[in-house]
Amino acid sequence: MRIEQLYEVYGKHPVICTDTRKISKSCLFFALKGDHFNGNEFASQAIENGAAYAIIDEEKYAVNEHFILVSDVLEALQDLARYHRRQLSIPVIGITGSNGKTTTKELIRSVLSQQFKTFATEGNLNNHIGVPLSILSINDECEIAIIEMGANHQKEIEFLCGIAQPSHGLITNVGKAHLEGFGGIEGVRIGKGELYEFIAKTGGTIFLNADDPVLKEMSAERGLENTVTYGSGKDNFLCAALEASSPFLDIKWECKAKSSDKKGFTAKSNLPGIYNFNNIVCAICIGSYFKLSPEQINSGVSSYQPLNSRSQILKTEKNTIICDYYNANPSSMIVALDNLESMNSASRAMILGDMFELGKEAGKEHQLILDKAMAANSERKIFIGEEFYKLKGSKSAEFFRTVHEAQQVLAENPILASTVLVKGSRGMKLETLLPLL
């Protein structure tokens, strides 16, 4: 079936599903394949559950007119998303970066939603499957879209840009994330820079953190002309300064486009951690660029509540927990430790889990984090995971191979009346410690 014909079918059935457990009536089921499953085998079940059509790539499963045969289901999904994107005339903001992209995306969504019908990537649907699904979720009512793009190797952002075709773009930062797949920090820089290259080729607009020398250099290298800058400098489109940081950030800001009020404006957030300063300022910048009022922008910032274990503060009967265990890499670990050190608390504690996908750099990077953690002012220092356990040595810290081992010790010797940073890679499952904290 040609993509134009498939698009006609999608126009009549614009809800896409890839999981038979989540079938909605009259949707399109795409029978994707994985390492341990073949979606074609579930196509009949999808039709029985209410799907209008099942898109498959194995002819033996095409038992009637409700089955649409294509050469490759994943490629069909991606091609359909590209085709749909070309029909859209709305601004599409592409966002990537080593740290903070999801928080920044949600802040931008919260701000722009004050005026526009805004679509943003849900959850972590930011890969070669998630981005097409996100694009195909944009309907005619949408006025602006924010598409998050994740990557763990080079050429992935380039590929995702070809699907999302962003008219505007931003890179939150370039840090030590997915070093194994990217082949080192320079590989991360090249990979993330693929967004800038796409914007440069298509004449789009970049939102640029002018306080970040790496991003400034990356932008200059690609000859980007349409840049909207934000940062501490007065010559930026959006100038901002930190007004308060305990426990949450307040941002003083002024925009060139709104320069009639020389006193500036103050945005109050529900986000802890100075590392969130740039994320908030970016959202303010984009809101200003799209001509929202200062009141709308500030309302968007203040109404955003962090979720999904990212910069989330949880007060329990025993402690105040900084829940930041959705993911971790050396760059985000450093700023999280700095934030713990800066917090106004009589007693502090840290529980750090291994960082994944660091390849041959794993030993060195874990040692650097351990050294920084050991120099911090913290009453309890707990390290969990094989990489940290290899570095066991200091008697003033506690090392455990597994979360289960840590649970047993915390049950017998609990942390009390402290501000506790809990951070590690998602696979460490540090959230299982919360009942003990």
Q: Can you tell me about this structure?
A:
The protein is an alpha/beta fold. It has three domains: 3-70, Udp-n-acetylmuramoylalanyl-d-glutamate--2,6- Diaminopimelate Ligase, Chain: A, domain 1 (3-Layer(aba) Sandwich), CATH 3.40.1390; 88-303, Mur-like, catalytic domain (UDP-N-acetylmuramoyl-L-alanine:D-glutamate ligase, 3-Layer(aba) Sandwich), CATH 3.40.1190; 312-436, Protein-Tyrosine Phosphatase, Chain A (Alpha-Beta Complex), CATH 3.90.190. Helices cover 35% and strands 19% of the residues. It is built from 15 helices and 19 strands. The chain has helices at residues 3-12, 43-48, 73-87, 101-112, 130-135, 156-164, 179-182, 185-202, 213-221, 277-289, 294-303, 330-342, 362-374, 386-390, 403-412; strands at 16-17, 28-30, 53-56, 67-69, 92-96, 118-120, 144-148, 168-171, 205-209, 227-231, 238-244, 250-255, 265-268, 312-315, 320-323, 348-353, 380-384, 398-400, 419-423. It is globular.
